[in-house]
């Protein structure tokens, strides 16, 4: 089975490509490298001992996408390609809607032209917005995310729902990721943010390796156990395997049409202070930090109810927080400058 992976050179994409290869799927990666390096694909090929077809291109370029569908007999698409920085999306919202919403529509149109119906979408826990209580469960109504980035994910989920209503052949899965962290245990592929990291773990790791002076903890006066925000962190390799599980689920359910959402998380919330402590323990070194003001748009705490994925996809996040920390550190210390080194 041949899978087109858009955004496959990125953080979650590269780990998923490896999992797909390990599970005997053939992979074509389509990526414009706006936030990634081709080096990630070279390393994935080495780890898997298999070849990946790579095409550099933008999902908004329908002609180029169409060429890819003509050249390769694609059976399913896993769609990671998107801009993903929450803060940046408030500065340049039009780029986010163009890339994430318009780009997805272009991809779906080309898929339709080429009669490819199996689609897995990178959604996010952010689609639950502020309105829903934790833990988040798939039966909840979609909420109103606080950023254009989050809104773009809600919009795409809406596009998929409408497409599924109109096209009886469409077979879509939205995977709502909670907070992916960590790296492949080889330490050769991992998260390589450009510039100052927005997310917690890459920032902590860069402090540990001496690239940043200290971590700013965004608020310690939230209504949580220790005052810092709580999130559902899951290992990126568990998340990668969630995509394989979703593809297997589509293959097992040949009668299925429509669109189905699954939360991919552990079901546990962990605070920022607890993450810093766990990282210190894993590397046996102190992480300098200071408490700074709250970051706009942060919710106090959210985590997944992952029962649906556990039961229907036969998927469970199994790697421990300790393993997430060790693997983050192995990647960061082996590659202090990411893929550029
Ligand atoms: P990433 O930036 O590492 O990967 C995204 C990839 O898409 C990059 O390789 C980038 O070059 C590519 N890309 C972006 N725009 C493109 C375009 N127009 N055409 C072709 N390629 C394009 O990000 P990631 O963390 O791996 O995230 C992957 C997906 O998962 C995204 O859709 C993101 O919104 C979603 N997601 C991520 C998180 C997270 O915490 N990392 C959480 C929830 C959802
Ligand atoms: N944090 C800090 N200091 C930092 C970075 C983060 O204290 O330097 C805190 C944040 O305030 C938050 C927690 O660490 O409480 C986690 O923050 P991240 O930025 O790592 O993750 P978010 O939960 O804010 O966002 C992530 C993804 C989004 C996605 C969202 C919901 O980055 O794409 O989860 O799924 F929308």
Question: Overview of this structure, please?
Answer:
This protein is of the alpha/beta class and 341 residues long. It has 2 domains: 2-181 and 233-264, Rossmann fold (3-Layer(aba) Sandwich), CATH 3.40.50.720; 200-231 and 267-340, UDP-galactose 4-epimerase, domain 1, CATH 3.90.25.10. It is 40% helix and 17% strand. The chain has 11 helices and 13 strands. The strands form 4 sheets. A 7-stranded parallel beta sheet has the order 3-2-1-4-5-6-11, sandwiched between helices. The chain has a two-stranded parallel ribbon with strand order 7-10. α1 packs parallel to α2 (39-48), α3 runs parallel beside α5 (93-113) and α7 (200-208) runs parallel beside α9 (272-283). The model has no long low-confidence stretch (mean pLDDT 97). The structure holds nicotinamide-adenine-dinucleotide (NAD) and uridine-5'-diphosphate-4-deoxy-4-fluoro-alpha-D-galactose. Nicotinamide-adenine-dinucleotide is lined by residues 6-7, 9-13, 31-36, 58-60, 80-84, 99, 103, 122, 124, 177, 179-180.
List keywords for this structure.
alpha/beta, two-stranded parallel ribbon, 341 residues, binds nicotinamide-adenine-dinucleotide, UDP-galactose 4-epimerase, domain 1, binds uridine-5'-diphosphate-4-deoxy-4-fluoro-alpha-D-galactose, 7-stranded parallel sheet, 2 domains, Rossmann fold
Task: Specify Rg, calculated over alpha carbons.
Answer: 19 Å
Instruction: Show unreliable segments.
Output: none
- Under CATH, the topology of the largest domain can be stated as Rossmann fold
Question: How many H/I helices?
Answer: 11
